[in-house]
Task: inverse folding
């Protein structure tokens, strides 16, 4: 785990990425919009502004913003 409070895990073989917020699984994201919704529900209203900030988000495995096969 990184020191960032949000981990976006490697793409799953069937598509999507698991999102963890402070060690709690928020769900499986299939797009940035899904990640933003998970973060909004967790109380971060301007979530779209932090997706590329390594102090907030750690993208694990694969390229950032790539959610794998549909």
Result:
């Amino acid at each position: 785990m990184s020191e960032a409070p949000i981990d976006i895990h490697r793409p799953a073989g069937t598509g999507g990425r698991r999102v963890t917020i402070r060690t709690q699984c928020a769900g499986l994201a299939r797009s940035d919009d899904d990640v933003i919704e998970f973060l909004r529900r967790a109380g971060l209203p301007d979530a779209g502004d932090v997706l590329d900030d390594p102090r907030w988000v750690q993208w694990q495995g694969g390229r950032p913003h790539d959610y794998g096969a549909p």
Remarks:
- The CA atoms of residues 53 and 70 lie 26 Å apart.
- The chain has a mean pLDDT of 92.
- The beta strands are 6-11, 17-21, 24-29, 57-59.
